[in-house]
Amino acid sequence: MHGRPIVPAARHPDKRDVGGALAEPRRRGLRSPGPGHAGREEGTRMIVDLRIYTCKPNKVADFVRLYQEKGWQLQQKHLGRCLGWYTTVEGALNTVVHMWAYDSQADRETRRNAMAADPAWVEYLAEAAKLDLLVKMENRILRPTAFSPVQA
């Protein structure tokens, strides 16, 4: 190669790389509630349900496939605001992590109870249990700080 080496342009920390091009940052105020969403009382902040699933070795792909085919649409219907759905690439392997935003603990309970009563969700859980893919499930309820980039 002749001439000077190609050096990537400096990246602005608030911009993301999309296919080699810099794009404007995504809006992080996730205030797009689903149907039937009542909204929060003034002065309250959302909560986030952080869910961590540890799969048996070599079973992450099976868990993700089953969830994508039978669980994802049901959770979108009932829970509505998924902030992210991930699998690990480093650290604790065989782990799936997802996060769901709710207006309050009462909103979370109402939505999760409706999902638990859905026969299709009960069927999904039975199939997941039959396949015996998981070692453990955990969850944590989080509240964003005042300076968190994700606010609802």
UniProtKB/TrEMBL annotation:
Residue ranges of the region described as Disordered: 1-41
Tree of life domain: Bacteria
Boundaries of every NIPSNAP domain copy: 49-149
Cross-referenced Gene3D superfamilies: 3.30.70.100
Alphabetical list of Pfam families matching this protein: NIPSNAP
InterPro entries: Dimeric_a/b-barrel (IPR011008), NIPSNAP (IPR012577), NipSnap_domain (IPR051557)
Family listed: Belongs to the NipSnap family.
Protein name as catalogued: NIPSNAP family protein
